Amino acid sequence: MDHFSALRYVARQKDAIPPLAVLIALVLAGCGVIEADKEENLPKVEPDAKDITPEPDIQEDAYVCEPEKCDGIIDKNRKNPTDPLQYLCISFDQLKNKAGLNTAAEHSGIVDVDINKDGKLDLYFLNNDSPNQLFVGGVGAFTKDSTVLGLDVGGDSRAAAFGDYDGDGDVDMLLCGDNGSALYTNKGGVFQQDPLLKDFDPGLAAVWIGSNALISTENGTRYYVYTGGSFVEDAVGYGLYDPGAGAAFAVADYDNNGLDDIYLANSTGKNRFFVNIGDGTFEAQEDELNVKGEYGNSTAAAWFNLKADDKLPSLYVANWDAANLLYVNDGKKFTNKAVDYDLQDPGFTTCAEWGDFLNEGNPGLFLCRAGQMNLLYVPRYGDDGTNQNITTYDNVAYPSKMALTDDTISAKWVDFNGDKMLDLVVAMANGAVQVYRNNTHWVKGCE
């Protein structure tokens, strides 16, 4: 039987022969390829269901981005330069053990100093109702050491300034309080009250200008000039007298001429800016340079570089129950740009502490406030991809877990655990101390 005979036979028998017989007949006939013009004569064979199931598309599992958690605030304005999908998590942990700063005295301030010259900052707590306390910095914690060094003095303290007035390589202390101001000379690692300097007016603030001591009292300023064997007061003669009650001094070389200039934040009257003439005397130029303080009742002042590449320092002035001031230095005069940078913050501000706690070259700002939420500001940058174009500042205190509401009196930035990140120590007037460990780090984000 040839091919065509076999096909005619299959056609005649298509109603009786099952599909399997068709296949057998084709094989027996030696059928290889069916010509296209003969297809209409083929029996219609329905394929099994499994033969019409389409092949599944083989695709890789789609990537699902799961951002890392941040126990703080994810700042998408800050991307990791080595990984653009990583954002900065700004976070601080409040330490229960307070890094060894166990003190419950009524505080009036904190002073940072390297007492033992080991490269680690130590903290000196000024107290109102009990002797002052020195906590020496170590690795991850502080150790109380005020009794050994003879610094458990005071009890009515308002301010302290450390400096080496006698040039022996050790820091000495000038202590101000309700009972006046006194000098404590460091003798072999132990501080002893020295009769060389004693002022009986209630002292409010102090700073060393070289070997000379500048003090603010409730009855005006005092300038004690060290002559080698004694101190001689001559604030008027050196151009540093002010009759007000100064709250704080801030010293910096505002015009880069190699000479220290002095800003006095007054709690009564206008603020003063004493410019160093170069012969040891000073001249008040707060009006000419536009830094007299528009509101009065200032509580703190701090010089800082607004940007990492600034050649001249700017000045921040904190006020009580009034807007704060940001004086930007252009080399000729100062302009208040607190509103432009959103740093005016009217409130009961008691301290202003600048610090580069994000390690990006530009400092942020912590504001202590009395009976109000403390504030933490970080710089916000423009769209040029650099950290030089600061457009404003954002308050991130609440999501960073630093928005404490208490009578905060003082604060200091210090890297107490040696991880190259600035931590913050905060003291309250009622005796409480809080230590915020900087836990800022990069986290994976999603576009």
Describe this structure in words.
With 447 residues, this protein is mainly β. 6% of the residues lie in helices and 44% in strands. The chain has 4 helices and 31 strands. The protein has helices at residues 3-12, 19-28, 49-52, 146-149, and strands spanning 73-80, 83-90, 92-94, 107-113, 122-127, 133-137, 142-144, 157-163, 172-177, 180-187, 190-199, 203-209, 212-217, 220-226, 231-233, 246-252, 261-266, 272-276, 282-284, 298-304, 314-322, 325-329, 334-336, 347-355, 364-373, 375-381, 390-395, 405-414, 423-428, 433-438, 441-444. Strands 3, 20, 21, 22, 23, 24, 25, 26, 27, 28, 29 and 30 form a 12-stranded antiparallel sheet that branches. Strands 4-5-6-7 form a 4-stranded antiparallel sheet, with no helix packed on it. A hairpin with an 8-residue loop joins strand 8 (157-163) and strand 9. The longest helix is centred in the first third of the chain and has 10 residues, at 3-12. It starts with a helix and ends with a strand.
SS-based class: mainly beta
Question: Would you identify the regions where 5 or more consecutive residues have pLDDT less than 50?
Answer: 1-43, 45-54
Query: What about the largest sheet?
Result: 12 strands, antiparallel
Q: What is the C-alpha radius of gyration, as a whole number of Å?
A: 38 Å
Characterize the overall form.
globular
Strand segment tally = 31
Helical stretch tally: 4
Mean pLDDT: 87
How far is the first residue's CA from the last residue's CA? 73 Å
What amount of the residues lies in strands?
35-45%
- Could you estimate the helical fraction of the residues in percent? under 10%
